[in-house]
Each structure stands twice: as C-alpha cells, then as structure tokens.
Design brief:
The protein is α+β, with helices and mostly antiparallel strands. The chain is 22% helix and 21% strand. It contains 3 helices and 6 strands. The strands form 2 sheets. It has a 4-stranded antiparallel beta sheet, with helices on one face. Strands 3-4 form a two-stranded antiparallel sheet. A hairpin with a 6-residue loop joins strand 3 and strand 4. The longest helix has 10 residues. The model has no long low-confidence stretch (mean pLDDT 88).
Amino acid sequence: MLVGAELQTVVDVRRMAGLLPDTIFDYVRARTDPVTGGFLSFDMDVYTATDEELAAEVPLDFVRAALPAGVDGEEFVHALGSGPASVQWEGRWPDEPKLGS
C-alpha cells in the first residue's frame, strides 16, 4: 500500500508526523533558491521546528511506501486534514490473506 497526502496546516503536519515517524516531507509546489535558481527540498526537522517556522513552509506533502506496523488505514484517514490524499493498494482486493485483509 502506498499512501500520500498534502498537508495544509502546521496542525496537519504535526498530526501526520506523530502517526508516521520518519516520513519525508517536501514542498507541494516547487521552490527555487533565489540566488542559484536550483530546486529546494524541504529539510526542516518537523519534530523540533517551531509552529512559526513550519507555518512559513506549508503546504507540505509526502508519499510513503507503507503504513508502519500498528497503524491502520482508518488512523491514517483520521489524521488527514483538509488537503487531498491518496491510498494505492496493489494485489487482490479485498481478499488478501497474506496481508490479513
């Protein structure tokens, strides 16, 4: 399962970071360095950044290969804010005995 979301607010980012530790966040829209013109990647630590620092960076998005053990799809859905999100299943639907679904 592949999950992703666009997080519109600081609260959204903090909630998702709490649910999905070690998730790599990035800018929704490409940003460039004003001097070099090179593309910028989001590299702030969302766990130590202040709300004010994060507010200057949102919206952020992420794509993750799988939900961590112990986190189910319902928890993911409840953690979403108002931005768009996606869940991509591969394999047999809905009966996949190896996955317990």
